[in-house]
Amino acid sequence: MTKTFVLAIDQGTTSSRAIVFDHGGRIVSTGQMEHTQILPQAGWVEHDAQEIWRNVRHVVDQALDAAGIGASSLAGVGITNQRETTVVWNRLTGVPVCNAIVWQDTRTAEMAAELGGADGQDRYKDRVGLPLTTYFSGPKVAWILTHVPGARRAAEAGDLLFGNMDAWLIWNLTGGARGGVHVTDVTNASRTMLMDLHTLGWDPAIAADMGVPLSMLPQIRSSSEIYGEITGLDRLAGVPIAGDLGDQQAATFGQACFTPGSAKNTYGTGCFLLMNTGERAVSSKNGLLTTVCYRLGDARPVYALEGSIAIAGALVQWLRDNFGLIGSAAEIEPLARSVEDNGGVFVVPAFSGLFAPYWRTDARGAIVGLTRFANRGHLARAVLEAAAYQTREVVDAMEADSGVRLTELKVDGGMVANDMLMQFQADQLGVPVVRPMVAETTALGAAYAAGIAIGYWDGIGDVTANWAEAKRWNPAADESRRARDYRLWKKAVARTLGWVDDDVTG
Question: In this structure, what is the dihedral angle of CA atoms 264, 169, 77, 26, given to the nearest 10 degrees?
Fold first, then answer.
């Protein structure tokens, strides 16, 4: 049978998905399954990596069954994943030594501060492009080796492996303990704090500072090449795994942001805005991250500036699950539209501190501006507006760092179905916001990376040709009102800072 399709496995923060794409970049079928969010104590967020591996196998079955195809119809498989979430497992048994520590987790705050010492958060920034915070994988590995009984001894004996979710899945898909390939790509490696951005290799000195044996680390490869054939999943036996991108870089690739200055924002659990800076790694002076955007085979790497926002769609989920004010995420827009504005209410979702551009682990969430006038509709509207305000803060920082004025913002992720939010975002930014025809750009980017590696697509030109606009929101807000609202948002953010201290932890 002709190799007609490409499969993408999208392992996200709240669910795992498998999506079959055709040559036009159109979705043929989908499988999806949520996994458990484990919250052992305040500030701790974990996942069961074995549950995720089981779910990935299940959603692959769902997608293949829905399309009515098997391995013989697939040209290749691409992987994309929640990035900094950290798995450490035994190479002999395939069993993780503990639950995966999720990117939102804050337990490494004290460890990160100790590593920074007198140099503070920027101790390694010139090499890795990242501040020392709880967000990244390296300190999470160090925490596991320090706190899980027997872990350090096993690591020093060479028995333990580390990876973000991409490495964990590729290892299992290619055989696991029976010869699985232990690799990651440059985009995921750039989120560990252990990879030198300029050499694209592991930095032995930083690894030593964190107490992480180099033997644990996966081989760093490009984002688009054949890593191995699948042997650990019968439905995909013999199909090559040929693409690997962290989720936000995959979305950037799927959005065809190939020219320096082009940018996209993904509205998912958090918000992640990336701007392509070409073959130059731009060092941020305004609270952004310097990261690898993608690397195709032996070509030179392409870099990006990133603004990472911890909580966006998760705030809607919080309103649903913790307060019961809505029954489903879709209900928030009509509730928000039941009022003319936010009634003076602002919600700052600093549940795990504030990410870009502040990087303040001492911040905690706040609802400010409450009066007796405020009702459910005002709170719902403030929840949605929080994503737009946080995005504007990142755009301001990005323009300052890059010297490039944003002319439009490509958007994707679950929240882009919300017309009210997208219009408010365009109003706050003062530039058009554009949604593509295929909104599943994260999975699509992984599929493209795999397909390019095996010749299914003919390079980034095919990606650009496939991209199409579905909807555009143009700014329409009064400038004075826009400026006033943003000033009040900044006041609300200031109220969240410094909450965690010697008396208040977690």
Answer: -40
Say which DSSP state 282 is in: P
Report the distance separating Cα 497 and Cα 165, nearest Å: 32
| 8 A C-beta contact, residue 134 and residue 109 | yes
HSE toward the beta carbon, residue 327, CA cutoff 13 A? 0
- Residues ≥6 apart with Cβ < 8 Å to 82: 11, 12, 13, 102, 103, 164, 165, 247
Handedness of CA 148, 149, 153, 154 (dihedral sign): negative
Q: Which residue's entry shows tokens 């029976």?
A: 178
For 14, phi and psi rounded to 5 degrees?
Answer: -110, -20
Q: Which residue has the tokens 């305000």?
A: 389
Return phi, psi of residue 80, to 5°. Answer: -135, 155
For the chain, the residue count is 506
Distance from C-alpha of 296 to C-alpha of 356, rounded to nearest angstrom: 28
Cα–Cα distances in Å, from 93 out to 107, 159, 161? Answer: 27, 9, 11
Query: Splitting the chain (506 residues) into consecutive groups of 10 residues, what average pLDDT does each group show?
Result: 87 95 95 95 94 98 96 96 96 97 92 91 94 93 97 97 98 96 98 96 97 97 98 94 97 94 90 92 92 96 93 92 91 95 95 89 93 95 96 93 89 92 95 92 96 95 94 92 94 93 63
Which residue matches tokens 């967000």? 135
Closest CA to 212 of 113, 131, 146: 146
